[in-house]
Model the fold of this input.
Amino acid sequence: MRASLIQIAVDPDEPVESRRARVARLVRAERGGADLVVLPELWPVGAFAYESFAAEAEPLKGPTYAAMAAAARDAEVWLHAGSIVEAAGGALYNTSLVFSPDGELVASYRKIHRFGFDKGEAVLMTAGEDLVTVDLPQLTVGVATCYDLRFPELFRGLVDAGAQAFVLPAGWPARRLGHWRLLAQARAVENQAYVLACGTAGTHAGVEQAGHSMVVDPWGEILAEAGPDEETLRVVLDPAKVNVTREQFPALKDRLL
Done:
């Protein structure tokens, strides 16, 4: 399976509509070269641009949905389109969208763990409740978002639901890059699963982004890692490696909790 992680730079001077069109072009550019394409968290607005959340909120099937559905269909790829600020029922959610190669929305995930403690996303957005997995032709992937990476029980739940890989869009700050790498590897090792972690580049809302999107294999080895700037990271995954790893070192069978 060929995966492409598109590490987007969120420039506050770039209009959101222009960014949607640009990202759609980047997705279409992966036609014939990828089976799965992954985008970062809240790339239309910026993960730390709290003051813009309400203004840029959109319904689930809003402008980002339309642009990404068309891009997935044109590129003929499975597309994890990162996340949007979803407006629903008078609340805001950090919601991820997953499309099939025919452009159909096959899953959405409302971020469960919101970052900010007593400010920002933690108070502006409502927490999701449901674990989400998606059956791709060769892998079952569990969906998580950014700050979720710090909560291993979520990933255990996804493994129990059949996940063999985790797709994690993020807007992770550069000052905690070490945690990003450490936690991505830990989630891979303890669950014997691939981790595809796609972050943003550049600086928005005064917060420098870590970039360094990466793909980690079920043994915890980093197969590919981006730098700090906007780029597309491409890697080939071996779906059989998950089962081989779990059979050769059957630690998951020894779980007591």
Summary: The two ends are 33 Å apart (CA to CA). The mean pLDDT is 97.
